[in-house]
Amino acid sequence: MIKEKGILFVLSGPSGVGKGTVRKALFEQDTELRYSISMTTRNPREGEEDGIDYFFKSRDEFEKLVSEGELIEYAEYANNYYGTPKAYVEQTLEEGKDVFLEIEVNGALQVRENFPEGVFVFLIPPSLEELKDRIVSRGTETEDKIKARLEAARGEIDMMDKYDYVVVNDDIDHAVEKVQSIVVSEHCKRSRVAKQYKQALEDDAK
């Protein structure tokens, strides 16, 4: 019997493109996907549980894991580290479950270096004008911050060629359908199926 291994899917794109919205809508429809649990040095908030919401670590523990290459990406925000633990991802994939990671562009490029077998999906807005409208509609950004975000978005969109797939987020349902199609097509890839099939034949011959 073929033992199918899970696949790591990385959804990325410029800030304001709707990564979180697409990911939530996808998970409402696809209960088989596993969301990657992040590791952090910040204190747990009320109701948060270790190993469910985050893996909570001390700063020393986190830095030790970084030095040992046990994180496939990490970054520091507001004096706290956040990252994706390699062991959790690998264990979940071995169980045959797909892991889904929603992340900023810089983090995705780190994952590409440390976990090149992942499948990288770039979410883009229909236009920069649309992206600006989405950032403005949040009502949380000053004019200068909006300009800075758009400038950063232009630079991030230039990194599109580092990804395997590009999905235009013109409509949430359409974007989710496209991501689901990518998941199906990746599981049908000859290179992936052949490897699993050969392993099954070898195991059968023993």
Automatic annotation (TrEMBL):
Residues 6-184 form the Guanylate kinase-like domain. ATP binds at G13, P14, S15, G16, V17, G18, K19, G20. CDD domains: GMPK. It is found in: Cytoplasm. The keyword Hydrolase does not apply. It comes from the Bacteria. It catalyses: GMP + ATP = GDP + ADP. GO terms for molecular function: ATP binding; GMP kinase activity. It is an enzyme of class 2 (transferase). GO terms for cellular component: cytosol. The keyword Transferase applies. Keywords: ATP-binding, Cytoplasm, Kinase, Nucleotide-binding, Transferase. InterPro entries: GK/Ca_channel_bsu (IPR008145), Guanylate_kin-like_dom (IPR008144), Guanylate_kinase (IPR017665), Guanylate_kinase_CS (IPR020590), P-loop_NTPase (IPR027417). Its EC number is 2.7.4.8. Essential for recycling GMP and indirectly, cGMP. Belongs to the guanylate kinase family. This is Guanylate kinase. It comes from Salimicrobium halophilum.
